């Protein structure tokens, strides 16, 4: 009888933990979705970054994103876009994107939240092509926004595996992922000081045929940007 009582108590404790986790995820999704909307306001972002919890928030954001990706099953084809877990992580990524869209936000992220930038690059390389496309796009938008800051561009471009990461993302079947990967590539190409450090690796590994293929895409924005990139790449003495 004592063992049965203990087993019942254990099952009840497990159920309470599950309910608490579901509650926290639901609350996180709701709060962060609200904050995502508010973060489009510059004054709201300045207030947020001026608070004592800003660094901790972005540290937790990195940890939450990483936990989310680790939880994805290997054979996952479709995501429940309406689930609290998905909404939670998309809202976090959206907040980072909006923060990085402002000069003060870019400076804050590259000065105080490099762990988050590292995590986003790592996760982009971990997720299979075609998976979590909206999440990938938001992270790529964040990195592109950070790259507008020269210090941010140097940090991102000098991260180990950055060039192979771009080539990996350019092979994603989603046009938006390819579009934003090209935007990030263009940031590197158009900054002479940064390009000088990456030129050799780019010249040796650039998936040139893939960019040519993207320049023939049915998506007008992707086609136009790929053509711009091909022109920009002439500085590396490539020829189509």
UniProtKB/TrEMBL annotation:
GO cellular component, one term: cytosol
Superkingdom in the source lineage: Eukaryota
InterPro entries: ARM-like, ARM-type_fold, HSF2BP
Name of the protein in its database record: HSF2B protein
Lineage: Eukaryota, Metazoa, Chordata, Craniata, Vertebrata
